[in-house]
Amino acid sequence: MAALRKNDRAAVLVASGDLREEANRVCWPAQKALENALRAAFAAADWKLVRGHSESRSRGHGFIASAREGLDVFRTIDPGVPLVVAEAVWQYSNHVLPGLTTHRGPILTVANWSGQWPGLVGMLNLNGSLTKAGVPYSTLWADDFSAPSFNRHLQAWLSRRTVHHDTSHVTPVDQVRIPTKVAAIGEAVAAALVERKALMGVFDEGCMGMFNAIIPDRLLHTTGVFKERLSQSALYHATMEVSDAEARDILRWLEKAGMRFHFGRNEDHDLTRSQVLLQCKMYVAAVRIADRFGCDAIGIQYQQGLKDLLPASDLVEGMLNDSRRPPVTAVGSKKTLWKGKPLVHFNEVDECAGLDGLLTQRVHEALGQPVENTLHDIRWGDWDASGTTDQWVWVFEISGAAPPSHFVGGWKGAQGFRQPPMYFRLGGSTLAGVSKPGEIVWSRIWVDGTGTAERLMMDIGRAAVIALPDAETQRRLEATTKQRPIMHAVT
C-alpha cells in the first residue's frame, strides 16, 4: 500500500473475514463487489479509497483471516488516516479490533444490504465490539452505494467525520409509564435473582471473535448471575460417553414428534443419520453437564474447536430451548432433567444473549406466558414482494437455538437440513422452520462504556410476526441461508 497522509483526500479500507478459509473463498466475490461499489462512491465524492492489504491469489480472497494477520496489517497503516472497515460477510471482530483500538483517525464501518452471507450481521457485531472497547466510530449501510441518501451520509463523514442517524423512535425507559402491578412483578423477579443467584454455564468464551459477547464479571454479578466456566473438551468427552442406544432414543422421539430430516449418503455434502446421532449424543451430554454444575443456562461455542470434532450444535440448541423436547435422565437415575422446561441456551456463547434469555424466561414465567425464547440475527429486510401486504418485513434468522414451539406446526413444522459444508466439515442438522404469526417482545443487552463508566444496557421493544405466502418465504430463504429457521418480523 502506498503511504498516505491525513490530508490526501484518501481513506484506507480493511476487510475482516472468517477464520475458515473455505468460507472466505466462497464469500470473496460478494466482498469484491461491495468494495468496487464503495470505491466508486468515494470517487464520486472526489476521494480515493485505497486497500490496506492485498488480495491473495493463492488463498483465493482478500480478507484478514486471523488476529495475527490483522496486527501485521495495521502496522503498515498510518494511525491518523481515515479508515473504512467494509463488510459483505460474517466476520471475526478479533481480526481487526486490536488495530482499531489504537487507530487515532476517524473510523467508518460499512455493510452491504444483503442477507447472503451476511454483511449487516458482521458489521453489527464489529460495532458492538467497538462500543464495548470505547472506540468511536460511524456506520453506514446500503443496498446501493450510488443512491443519493448514501452519498449524503458518506459526504457527512468525509467532511465532518460523523454520521447522524435518526433515533427518534427510541424512548428512554424513564419516560415510560410502567403499570404498578407489572412493575411489582419485575421487581420481584429481579430481587429473587439477586437473592438466590443463577449460573450461566459458559463453554469457553470469545466464540467467533465476539469481544462484545463477553460480559465483565463485575457487571454480571450485580444482576445476581455468575459464570460457571466450562470447557468444550469436557462437552466432547461427555458426548462420547453417551451410548448409541440413548442417541437412537432421542432421534426416534424427534421423528415421532414429526420433525423431517433430509438425509443423504454423501458425508461431505449431505445430512446423514450418523451426524444427527452425534448431535443427539451432544444434546444428552449438554443437559447432564448443566445438571452436574447446577447451571440455569448454558452456551455452546458453536464453531471454534467443536467444529473440528463434532457436527454443528444447531439441533442441540433448538431442543434445549423448548419445553417439549426429548427427555434426558441423569446418569444412573430415572429422574428426567428440566422436565417440561427449557434449559436456556445462548447461541455462540453470547453472554449478553444468555443474560437476556434468562431474564426473558423468568419474566414470562412470572406473567404466566410461554417461556421459550431464542437469539435471532437481524439478517436483512425487504418489502413484501408477494403483494399480500404493503409492509417492510425484516428477516430474523439464526443458525441454531430457535425452539420448534415458535414454528408453524411446532415439531411437525421442523425440518433438518445439513449445515453448509463451508461452515461445518462434519455437517449436522439445522432445526429449520417458519415462525408462527403473533406478537413478540424483542430485546438485546450490550456492554457500553469503558473503565469505571462501563455498564450493562438493554434495548427492548415489540414487534409482530406475520405470515407470508410460501413463495415469498422461499424467496427470502434463498436470499439468506435457506437451511436455517426464519421469522418474518414487522417492527
Your description of this structure?
The chain has 2 domains: 10-160, Rossmann fold; 175-490, 3-Layer(aba) Sandwich (L-fucose Isomerase, Chain A, domain 2), CATH 3.40.275.10. Helix content is 33%, strand content 18%. It is built from 13 helices and 16 strands. A 5-stranded parallel sheet has the order 2-1-3-4-5. Strands 11-12-16-15-14 form a 5-stranded antiparallel sheet. Helix 11 (314-320) links the parallel strand 9 (297-299) and strand 10 (344-345). Helix 8 (232-241) crosses helix 10 and helix 10 (273-293) crosses helix 11. It is globular and about 70 Å long. The two termini are 44 Å apart.
Give a topology summary.
Layout: E1 10-14, H1 21-44, E2 48-51, H2 67-74, E3 83-87, H3 97-101, E4 107-112, H4 119-133, E5 138-142, H5 148-160, H6 180-196, E6 198-203, H7 217-221, E7 225-230, H8 232-241, H9 244-257, E8 260-261, H10 273-293, E9 297-299, H11 314-320, E10 344-345, H12 351-366, E11 377-383, E12 392-397, E13 415-416, E14 438-448, E15 455-465, H13 470-478, E16 486-490
Parallel strand pairs: 1-2, 1-3, 3-4, 4-5, 6-7, 6-9, 8-13, 9-10
Antiparallel strand pairs: 11-12, 12-16, 14-15, 15-16
